[in-house]
Amino acid sequence: MSLLEIENLTLSIGEAPILKGVELSVTPGEVMGLVGESGSGKSMTALTVMRLLPHLSRMAGRVTFDGIDILAASEDQMCALRGDDIGMVFQEPMTALNPVKTIGEQVAEGIRWHTRASRAEAEERARAILDRVGLPESKFPLSRYPHELSGGQRQRVVIAIACALKPKLLIADEPTTALDVVLQAQVLDLLRDLVAENHMGLLLISHDLAVVTEMADRITILRHGEVMEAGDTARVLSEQVHPYTRQLAQASVHVPARARADPPRKDEGPSAVPLLRVENLSRHYPGRRLSLFRRGEPTNAVDGVSFSMMPGQSVALVGRSGCGKSTLARMVLALDRPSSGEIRFRGDALTGKSEADLKPARRDMQVVFQDPYGSFDPRQKVERLVAEPLHVLETAPTRAERREMVAHALHEVGLAASDMDKYPHEFSGGQRQRLSIARAIITRPKLVVADEPVSALDVSIRAQILDLFAELNGKLGVAYLFITHDLTVARAITDEVMVMHEGRIVERGKTGEVLDHPQSDAAQELVAAAPDLHRAIARRLQEQG
Questions:
Q1: Helix or strand run (H / E) with residue 303
Q2: What's the pLDDT tens digit per position in 392-434?
Q3: How many CB atoms lie within 10 A of CB 62?
Q4: What are the φ and ψ backbone dihedral angles of 200, each rounded to 5 degrees?
Q5: Could you tell me which residues come within 8 angstroms of residue 489 by beta carbon, excluding any fewer than 6 positions away?
Q6: How many CB atoms lie within 10 A of CB 257?
Q7: How far from chain centre, in Å, is Cα 362?
Q8: Euclidean distance between CA atoms 275 and 313, whole angstroms
Q9: Hey, what domains does the chain have and what are their CATH numbers?
Q10: Predicted pLDDT at 253
Q11: For residues 453 and 457, what is the distance between their CA atoms, to the nearest angstrom?
């Protein structure tokens, strides 16, 4: 008997149709993969099951969970189900967590609400589940706040919250999007073990076919709210009967290489002035206070890093979650002050300058943040958000010029000019990431620091965005510092790669040489853990006969 049964589900919000006759089922102990491009309706299917839909939503069809009619259930019934019998891992961990509550409070909250346990008992159970998801008490006490954790560590907290009460059904919406490949493999193993231990059903939503193939017993492929193909994972992905299935599989394997020659670089040679030079850069954070007069050991987030980038060069910075990549990026952007070392941009020192003195440099350097939704003010429309960097220009554009520049930037990332009058919550996760990229390129900067710029995008949109980055690199000589855990992206778009481990650069060289013949232990671990669709399909075929 199915734990979750979705029959002929249709959903519309206002006048916009979202889902059209979706059929899907999950049995206890089964992993069901739900795959599709950004905006295909994957997350809306999950939110329908959770009854967390926006205002003006209209549903029809049948959704049954463990004998309960979800569409007819009252809000009190759904409150009893959410977190207890149905757990959900949301797509963006920072927005799913409360920034003013500790991780211990947030994990214990659901336990206390549903079991009426005492505070001490709830904290003990919270500690146990955090240990289970790889956040040991020695490094991650319950008193930590979400902003003190890396993206991957926050995702593990969200998984701990969802699994704290051992739900019958776990819905995981892009659970490994923000994770490096090594941690991704660990989290997938964790989810697989939790399914086996508790005999719960898992609805795994992802745009990454390799990840779904590794995990799912059955797969449903969604496009524009309609099911294109469904069945056993091995059969669907090996036969690829539907053209859309073939299109997804090809896009997963073939990330387009840069169709460009190396951009011209001025003054190449020994006397060339690098666009960016980082020398012996370190960032130390004081240890947590252990008592009134004693602090713990300081944290060395970045430890003696040195590198340089020439104009038009693309460099990838890869490494495990929490190794210091984002901290290094914030210091390069002058958003954080280093403890020691020096940063020079176009020959001028950035360290120690005031905000007014940094304004000329900010015109030529922009950033694409890892969490697209968290980097936007939800109260502002897209026009104002994308136009935000224009205030650093020497001459402020008129309103008409600003709208034209925003429309052009949106067009370059595959969005319509009409989207500038919408709010961020009206877009899918992948579309919000494209808005972030539009905001970064609107001033035509010389350097873009991209912190996981395509991690939230499906494979086909990812290919388009990488083509866009390459086009801007070739036409305008824009240099990129790509912070990524996706080695396929690093191989497709960058000239050189730097491998970071525990705050240090442990290996650097030409992208192909480092990824094909890694020398350091950290690089070898990353390469070995990278998901591979062909390998995953072959293993599934063997398992499923």
A1: strand 299-309
A2: 887 888 889 999 999 999 988 888 999 999 999 888 767 887 8
A3: 14
A4: -100, 160
A5: 255, 316, 454, 462, 466, 482
A6: 12
A7: 25
A8: 9
A9: 1-80+171-253 (3.40.50.300), 88-166 (no CATH), 276-535 (3.40.50.300)
A10: 63
A11: 9
